[in-house]
Amino acid sequence: MAGDLALGASIEGCSTIPEADGRVDRTIAEASKSEKLDKLEDWAKTNQIKFSKGKCRVLHLGKNNPKHQYRLGVDLLGSSTVEKDLGVLVDNKLSMSQQCALVAKKANGILGCMKKSVASRSREVILPLYPALVRPHLEFCVQFWAPQFKTDRELLERVQRRATG
What is the pTM of this model? Predict the structure, then answer.
């Protein structure tokens, strides 16, 4: 579905032009992004693809971001502080703490279901289930969202200790 496209890669290809004093004229870059959104809308109309504009949002990254508003056709795109793409939560600070908390919650839920549904509590029974049922959730896209903070690592390590303890 076209509304589910992650448009950031094509839009972020815009370059900024530094002024003589080193400042960056962001208005040129913002206009270019708007033009690319207009081209995308025209392409969708030409190919008879309808965007689900309610699903399209802008994730403003960085502390000094001027947070421009963008349009897709005649509709303003909503702004968001956190978005989920391909199952990974990304916030406007590129902090992965929310993702770590979500993964730990899922893994703990699966561990709880395992302990309730498996009659034997012996390590010989529980340990083979861990790599099959829990670890895939802990490792999904970990190259991207790897825990950055000590508290996030400790949270995930607690899940592992709970499974093996």
Answer: 0.67
